[in-house]
Amino acid sequence: MKTILISIAAGSLLATLATAQTPRYTVTDLGALGGTNGSGNGINYQGRVAGAASLPSGNSRAFLSGPGVVYDLGTLGGPNSSEGGLNASNQVAIFADTSQKDPFGNDFCGFGSHLICQAAIWNGTMTALPTLGGNNGIAYAINNQGQVAGAAETSNKDATCIAPQVLRFEAALWGPTGQVQELPPLPGDTVGAALWLNNYGQVVGSSGTCANGGVFPTFDGPHAVLWQNGSPTNLGNLGGSMVNLGQSINDLGEVVGCADLASELPGFPFVQIHSFLWTQPAGMQDLGTVGTDFTSFPFGINNNGQVAGASCDDMGNCRAFLWQNKAMMDLNSLVPANSPLYLMFAFVINDAGEIAGQALQTSTGEIHAFVATPIPAASAATDFEPASPDLSRPMVLPEGVRKTIRGRLGMRGR
C-alpha cells in the first residue's frame, strides 16, 4: 500500500509537469517478429513494452521487449498467443491457443484456429489460468500485485449466444496464485468481461447478454461496469444503449471507455461511438474526437489523467490521440514530421507519458508495434521538427487495414 501511495504522489507531481505544456515524442519501431503485423499493448514503469506480433508463418505471438531485442513468449501448445497486459515486475498477461480443438468449434480468442484458448501469466514461463467451468478464458490486463482481469467461460449453455459461442462467459479476476473469482454482471445481464484493473483491484469492463457476441477483441456489451470488491456498478451512458464499456482505470479511480451516442445519423450504416471519462464526482463526460472525426476509442489512462486512444473517420481511417488538459490531439502532430511510422492506435500510456501502440509503416504498408517516448522540454524546443500542418483529417489507410479496423472496432452496421 505504501508503495502505491508513493507512486500516486509522484504521479501527481508528474501530472503538473506533464500537462503544463504540449509534449513532443520520439518514436521507436518495434517491428513484428518477422511478420507484417505487430502491436504494443502494454508498457510498464521501466518502459518495457509487451504486445503481439505475427511470425513469417502468419501466426500470432505475444512478445516482451528488452534492450535492442523483442522476445517471443511462446504459446500453451498451439500456434498462437497474444498479450493482454504488463506489470512492473515484467509479468505478462497472456491468452494463448492450446493444442485441443474447442468441442463447440468456438474461436474464443479470435485467432481463427478454433482451438481451446486459455488465459495465462508469463513470468519467465507460461502458466495457464483456470476457467469458470467452461473451456476457454482470456486475459486482458495485469496489475502490480499480480492480479489478472479478463473473461472466462462457464459451463452454462445459452441459446441466445451468437454462433459458434455456446457457453456463457463472465468477467473474471484471477489472484496472484491463480485462484479465479467470477465478477457478476449487472442485474438483468447474463454475461460480461473485465478489460482492465488498477493496483487497488478495481476492475472495469462491460456486461450484457450472450447475444452481444464473443469476447475478442473486446466484448462490447450495452453496459459499462466498474467492479469494486466484486460488486458491479453501472457507469451510465452517453445517450445510446448499444455499446458501453469501461476500457481502463487508473489508481485514482478515473475510468475511460467508449459509448454510443443518442443521435444516430439517419441512413448511416455505423454506430457512432465517443470516448468518455468517468469520475465519481462528475460521472460520465464525452471526450469527443480529434477535429471532425466520426468516432473515438480510448484505451489507456495514466495517473496523471492523460488518455491515449484512437480517433477515426467514417471510413475506418484511424489516428492515435493523446488527451490532456481537456483537449484531444492527433499524436502524429506531436512526433517529428519525418517519422517513418503513421501512428494509428495508442493502446497504453504509463505515468512517464510513454505510449505504446500500433502504427502503419508508410514505406511498406506493414503494421508495426511502436513506443513513443516524451522528449525533454528543452530538447523539444531546439531540436524538434514540427509535423505536417495538414492534420485536419486522418491519413487514408490501405483498404485492407481499414476493413480490419471497421471489423474490430464498434463501427458495426445497425
Describe the fold and architecture.
- A hairpin with a 5-residue loop joins strand 3 and strand 4.
- With 414 residues, the chain is mainly beta.
- The protein is globular, with a radius of gyration of 20 Å.
Keywords:
single chain; 414 residues; mainly beta; four-stranded antiparallel sheet; 3 helices; 28 strands; 8% helix; globular; disordered C terminus
Query: C-alpha Rg, in Å?
Result: 20 Å
The major beta sheet can be summarized as:
4 strands, antiparallel
**Structural class estimated from helices and strands:** mainly beta
**Terminal Cα separation, in Å?**
46 Å
What portion of residues is helical?
under 10%
Shape: globular
Q: Which residues form runs of ≥5 with pLDDT under 50?
A: 1-19, 410-414
Number of DSSP strands? Answer: 28
Mean pLDDT: 89
The percentage of residues in β strands lies in over 45%
Strand order of the largest sheet: 1-28-27-26
Tally of helical segments: 3
Outline:
With 414 residues, the chain is mostly beta strands. Helix content is 8%, strand content 46%. A hairpin with a 5-residue loop joins strand 27 and strand 28.
